[in-house]
């Protein structure tokens, strides 16, 4: 194991910057969670459109329905789902 010595002033500056970075990340995560309350997930969209998960996958693949992926979860804007509903009514 390697031991590294540094001046206390350097360590304090490094910790201060790390804490500021942590606060920025927490702020971003909090704002993202709040904005996702208005978004729909796969289950919501399948129920609204009365479609299967596979059909929803097809809509994503062919560009019929816009989506956002965060980690491994898909989210949809309600207005994009409404566009699909209107498109399906026209058929």
Describe the structure in your own words:
- The chain has helices spanning 8-35, 42-49, 53-61, 78-90, and strands at 68-70, 73-75.
- The chain starts with 7 loop residues before the first helix and ends with a helix.
- The protein has 4 helices and 2 strands; from the N terminus they run αααββα.
- With 91 residues, the chain is mostly helical.
Average pLDDT for all residues: 88
Helix content: 55-70%
Structural class per helix/strand content? mainly alpha
Whole-angstrom Rg? 22 Å
Spatial strand order of the main sheet: 1-2
> Any idea what the shape is?
elongated
Q: How far apart are the first and last residues' alpha carbons, in Å? A: 69 Å
Helix tally equals 4
**Low-confidence parts, pLDDT < 50 over ≥5 residues?**
none
Q: Write the element-wise H/E pattern from the N-terminal end onward.
A: HHHEEH
How much of the sequence lies in strands comes to 5-15%
| Total number of strands | 2
> Which sheet architecture does the biggest sheet show?
2 strands, antiparallel
């Amino acid at each position: 194991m390697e031991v590294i010595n540094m001046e206390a002033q350097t360590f304090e500056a490094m910790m201060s910057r790390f804490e500021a970075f942590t606060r920025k990340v927490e702020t971003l995560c909090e704002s993202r969670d709040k904005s996702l309350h208005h978004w729909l997930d796969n289950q919501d969209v399948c129920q609204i459109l009365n479609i299967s998960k596979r059909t929803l996958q097809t809509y994503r693949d062919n560009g019929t329905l816009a989506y956002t992926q965060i980690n491994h979860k898909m989210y949809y804007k309600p207005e994009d789902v409404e566009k699909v509903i209107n498109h399906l009514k026209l058929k």
